[in-house]
Amino acid sequence: MRSRFDQQLHKLHMNLTGMGALCEQAIAVVAKALLDQDATLLPKAYETEQRIDQMEREIEGLCMNLLLRQQPVASDLRAVSSAMRMISDMERIGDQAADIAEILGYYTGNGGLQSVDHIGDMARATIKMVTDSVESFVQSDLRMAEETIRYDDVVDALFDQVKAELTKLLVSSPDQGQRCLDLLMIAKYFERIGDHAVNVAEWVCYSITGFHPKNVKEEA
After folding, report:
1. How is residue 69 annotated by DSSP?
2. Alpha helices, DSSP H, located in the chain
3. For the chain, which has fewer Cβ within 10 Å, the N-terminal or C-terminal residue?
4. How far is CA 157 from CA 31, 71, 209, in A?
């Protein structure tokens, strides 16, 4: 019985890793489409988002099977229940990458949407957060999960820099209002992706320790 459970738990880890890789890919594709002004990449973003949705359903089914048939206890139960929470945030990451692709699609045939300096940095930072949050679950690495949570400060600081850049651009070129608004929305989506990666990392902390970081802060 335990051997069967371990096999399914390994499959859960592998599927989560695959879903995380798709999230990374979705972010990377829309970032490249923006930075290279390459609209031909946008269909790949939508395709990846659909694959993320499919993997969410598959992992949810696997988790339900583990909960109902294998009846895990203690840390195993926390790991499975945490995985179910994590895939919800990962699905939202795919949605927000698709939202970025939708904004970029409006500029197809109009020369593309010229970016500002720190949006590319935000994209790379959020990819790191997604990668590390999922890897921390697979490796049961509490330190990596906690570092991912703290790394959100980097993304937030970059978001502030993007806002400052766009404010300066708007002052110097008032006719760029729509472009500034769209770039701000894209930066906000990247910032939200970072927040979802934090949520994933927090559930990793719970799966390992039995305590959710937010609850610990509220009790302190």
Report:
1. I
2. 2-35, 42-65, 74-105, 117-138, 142-172, 177-209, 213-219
3. C
4. 18, 44, 29
Q: Please report how many Cα atoms fall inside a 13 Å half-sphere around the Cα of residue 214, on the Cβ side.
A: 7
Alpha-carbon dihedral angle through residues 214, 215, 216, 217, given to the nearest 10 degrees: 50
* Residues in contact with 150: Cβ distance below 8 Å, sequence separation at least 6, in sequence order: none
d(CA 188, CA 122): 10
Considering the entire predicted model, what is its pTM?
Answer: 0.91
Residue with token string 């203690």 = 74
Distance CA 77, CA 73 (A): 5
Q: CA-CA distances (angstroms) from residue 61 to 12, 49, 104?
A: 10, 19, 34
Q: Quick check: 60 pLDDT over 50?
A: yes
Mean pLDDT of 60-81: 84
Residue corresponding to tokens 């993320």: 52
Going 184 to 173 to 34 to 158, the CA torsion angle's sign is negative
**Are the CB atoms for 5 and 70 separated by under 8 Å?**
yes
**Short-list 13, 168, 159, CA closest to 86:** 13
Three-state DSSP at 70 gives: helix
Closest CA to 77 of 15, 1, 5: 5
Instruction: For residue 160, give both structure tokens.
Output: 């502030």
CA distance 59 to 165: 41
Residue 14's identity, in one-letter code, is: M
